[in-house]
Amino acid sequence: MEAELAEPRGECILILPYPDTKHDLFLNKEMRMLVKSSNYRVVEEFRLRINNPKYLLSPSRLIELKSIVEKLADVFIIVGAHLSAKQHINLEKKLECLIIDKFELVLEIFALRAMTEEAKIQIQLAQLKYEGPRERLRLMDRLSVEGAWHTERAGFWGTGENPLHEFDAGAKKREAHLKGKLADLKQKRIDRRLNRKRHHHDSVYVSIVGYTSAGKSTLLNALTNTDASSVSPRLFETLDTRIRSFKLEDLKIFVTDTVGFIEDLPTFLIDSFRSTLEESIAADIILIVIDGSESSLDLIVQKLNVTVNTVNEIMPQNNRILVLNKIDLLSSEQLDKRENLLKKHFPEYEVVSVSAEKNVQPVIRAIEKFRPPKKYLLKYNPNHVFRSFCHEFTTVEEESFEGQWSMTFSIRKPTYGLEAIKRKGEALNVTFEVREV
Ligand SMILES: Nc1nc2c(ncn2[C@@H]2O[C@H](COP(=O)(O)OP(=O)(O)OP(=O)(O)O)[C@@H](O)[C@H]2O)c(=O)[nH]1
Ligand SMILES: [Mg+2]
């Protein structure tokens, strides 16, 4: 299902740095996409060469920009970079118009798209952390204009409180409140996950991760044959973790869609979305989706590195499959080059090429290889050494010691498979029988 892009929500001047490298070019392009994804229309692009610590722009460029702002009615400014709180407020005062920096824009997009309560609260918390210091500076400014700010006497303000103290206390209280609510919701999510695992212990759990717009939701919908996840060319279309399942003969496969990654995101934002990704920690397989139709090989590697670094940090243990997506847009020569590139950079992962829009069978076949191991019932005459050996090299699920000893286990290490267990039993002269259950 393709979501329609809505009417523009407002007009803005976009400030972008002069691109010196290919990488800057990519960041500028991505910034334009972010603005588009939040439904703002850019009426003017303004270039910036140096980052002035006080005003972002040099004094002469500041005058130039001010005259543009004055000519355009009802316009605001989006800065394609991170502004310090001080720069933000100084610039706002000089230009007398609303300024939104890159991180605020991302937060705004997140706020627009969040669906679940947990995602909404996470955004409120991130907004509080990022915008709080800016609000505080604005307040300090108002107070200094009123001329009274230097005096910190209790009761001076008529209310009996210093407004700055009141502001700080309010922010602290709100943060504690939001964190409490988040903790409750997180616990509920963990309980749900445990319940799912308990009821479906022989299922496969798959989590789809990747750069924003790589085609994660399209893949989830295709695998589960639903339109559960919204698909759109906008960045950050998905913000909430969606879980759906499908059956492969007798095997149930749970699939999770996740928030997309983007380069240059502030740590506090990544932190606040970590819990959405935590759902993936329990996954048996992580599908790392890559937009194979990117304009260059460099861009593919660059975006993939952003994803892999986050995956390495949050879920280092899980099995991974690289899914090269959108291959319907590639010639066979391009496809070869891109597959080889992935194999060269990530030799340890399996690479699967698909078009999530046309055919996802190769992904299903790759997932199938991770079928949970078979279970075996072993009955044997009491022998402690044999028992320890089985405990060391298999996952024992049940044991009983009445008369003959018995245990149900699954093989954990392929190198110590069923044959190794049998050999050990024979070597120890244990009478035993083992069969699949
Ligand atoms: N041609 C082609 N387009 C695709 C394919 N898969 C996805 N797309 C398009 O790519 C765009 C992004 O797809 P999504 O599935 O929304 O991507 P996503 O990774 O979930 O994006 P976010 O949720 O924003 O992070 C949409 O316009 C899809 O129609 C594919 O296999 N081929
Ligand atoms: Mg999505």
Give the arrangement of secondary structure elements.
Blueprint: E1 10-17, H1 22-37, E2 40-48, H2 59-71, E3 75-79, H3 85-95, E4 99-101, H4 102-113, H5 117-145, H6 163-199, E5 204-210, H7 216-224, E6 242-248, E7 251-257, H8 267-278, E8 285-291, H9 297-314, E9 319-325, H10 332-345, E10 350-353, H11 361-368, E11 375-380, H12 384-393, E12 394-400, E13 405-411, H13 418-427, E14 432-436
Parallel strand pairs: 1-2, 1-3, 3-4, 5-7, 5-8, 8-9, 9-10
Antiparallel strand pairs: 6-7, 11-13, 11-14, 12-13
Helix pairs in contact: 1-4, 3-5, 4-5, 5-6, 5-8
Describe the 3D structure.
This protein is 46% helix and 20% strand. The chain has 13 helices and 14 strands. α5 (117-145) runs antiparallel to α8 (267-278). It has 437 residues and is of the alpha/beta class. A 6-stranded mixed sheet has the order 6-7-5-8-9-10, with helices on both faces. A 4-stranded parallel sheet has the order 2-1-3-4, with helices on both faces. A 4-stranded antiparallel sheet has the order 12-13-11-14, with helices on one face. α1 links the parallel β1 (10-17) and β2 (40-48). The longest helix has 37 residues, at 163-199. The protein is elongated, with a radius of gyration of 28 Å. The chain has helices at 22-37, 59-71, 85-95, 102-113, 117-145, 163-199, 216-224, 267-278, 297-314, 332-345, 361-368, 384-393, 418-427, and strands at residues 10-17, 40-48, 75-79, 99-101, 204-210, 242-248, 251-257, 285-291, 319-325, 350-353, 375-380, 394-400, 405-411, 432-436. It has 4 domains: 10-112, Rossmann fold, CATH 3.40.50.11060; 117-182; 200-368, Rossmann fold (3-Layer(aba) Sandwich), CATH 3.40.50; 375-436, Alpha-Beta Plaits. Residues 216-217, 229, 237-238, 257 line the site of magnesium ion.
